[in-house]
Amino acid sequence: MLEEAFGITTGPSSAPDILLFKRFKAFWPNIVFSDYKPGTEVPAIAKVLTDMLADMKTFLSDQLDMNHQRKVCQKKFTKRYDLIRHERTRH
C-alpha cells in the first residue's frame, strides 16, 4: 500500500529507492506485531530522537536569527521551528 501511495504521489520510477519498498513488503510477514513498541517507548531510541529534536531546534533557531535574503526561506524556517516546538510540548 505504501509503495502504491508513493507511486501515486511521485509517479512511476525505476530508481533504487523503490527497491526499499519491495524489501519492506517482502519482510512484512516477519514482523511480530505483538512485540511492537513505538520508538518513544524504547529508552535508547527515545534518547536519540530527543537529541535529534534538540539539534533540529537549535539549528532552526540559529537560522531564524540569520538575515536571509529571501523571505521564503525565513517563512519555511519559522514554520518548521513552530512544528518542532509544538511536538516537544505534546510529549
Provide an overview of this structure.
The protein has two domains: 1-34, no CATH class; 37-91. Helix content is 69%, strand content 0%. It has four helices and no strands. The protein has helices at residues 2-10, 17-27, 43-65, 71-90. The longest helix is centred in the middle third of the chain and has 23 residues, at 43-65. The model has no long low-confidence stretch (mean pLDDT 76).
Structural class: mainly alpha
Q: So how many helices?
A: 4
Please mark out the parts with pLDDT under 50 across 5 or more consecutive residues, or reply none.
none
Shape: flat
Largest β-sheet summary = none
Count of domain modules: 2
Number of strands: 0
Order of helices and strands: HHHH
> Alpha-carbon distance between the termini?
29 Å
List keywords for this structure.
single chain, about 90 residues, mainly alpha, 2 domains
Describe, in short, the structure shown.
Helix content is 69%, strand content 0%.
Strand-helix topology:
Blueprint: H1 2-10, H2 17-27, H3 43-65, H4 71-90
